[in-house]
Amino acid sequence: MSAFNEDMRLAGEAIWKVLLWSVILGAGLPALFALGVRSLAWGTGGDAEVSHAGGNATGKVIAGVLFLVVLYCVAAGIVFIIATGQGNDISFAHVIPTIKEK
Would you give the end-to-end CA distance of the chain in angstroms? Predict the structure, then answer.
């Protein structure tokens, strides 16, 4: 009975990890992108803004940072898929994802 309980505990931990990453990547990245679009509208003072005031440079900077974060995550995901498909590992040692031999 102890082996069964250990297997269930490990399965539960794995399910929570998958759930956490799916929420982060499945809802988090689109939310960051949406905040970037909203910040860009604030930065340009476009029709998406309620007040129709002039543009704000801070909004453009925030939008740029958010878009760069989203692009970085997409690029890291593509590198991860390529690396694992070739039977290699991926390293984030220098922030830039690199493929390394196993």
Answer: 37
Residues in the chain, overall count: 102
Instruction: Return the minimum-mean-pLDDT range out of 30-34, 44-48, 63-67, 88-92.
Output: 44-48
What is residue 50's predicted lDDT score, i.e. its pLDDT? 61
In angstroms, rounded to a whole number, what is the distance separating the alpha carbons of residues 50 and 52?
Answer: 6
Does residue 46 have a pLDDT over 90?
Answer: no
Nearest to 73 by CA among 99, 95, 41, 101: 95
Contact present, 43 and 55 (Cβ < 8 Å):
yes
3-class state of residue 77 by DSSP: helix
Those residues whose C-beta lies under 8 Å from the C-beta of residue 80, and which sit 6 or more positions away, are 90, 97
* CB burial string 17-32: b at 16+ within 10 A, e below: eeeeeeeeeeeeeeeb
